[in-house]
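Exercise 4. Each item below gives a protein and its sequence. For each, produce the structure-token representation.

Item: Secreted protein (Pristionchus entomophagus).
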Amino acid sequence: MKISVLVATLSAIVNAQNDCNAYNELESATSCGSSGYAMNYGLPNCENFSKREDIFDARGKRFISCTRGCLARFVREELIGGNVKNCATIKSMAFASHVPCYKKCEFCQALFSNKIAFARVFRFSDFFNANALRQVADISWNCIWSG
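Answer:
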């Protein structure tokens, strides 16, 4: 039993590192720099959620794992795979991918039992970013009207 828990834990850590590494891969492919989506938003948030995952309940952890994978797939398949090089286009496309991933991964359900955990993990500075604010408004609207 203990070995299977250890294997599952190590697997989750490796998956989180691989998913967050998508942002380093994007930066290597595009060189948008410290103000680009990958280095300024994607990677810091991915790493922050991965480091603080332990403060979430089971539903919150499922949301984090699902969203991390969903966003990493988008970065690898659509941005890197699509050979998108324009930094403004990358930022726009990447932010547009957040709400569909959040919906798919049941953010609204995770939020209700993890409000304090989310408040501790979100970076305050992100709430001064127009793209992030739009994303918060979109997903909030979805939470209000879908349940």
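Check: Confidence is low (pLDDT under 50) at residues 5-15.
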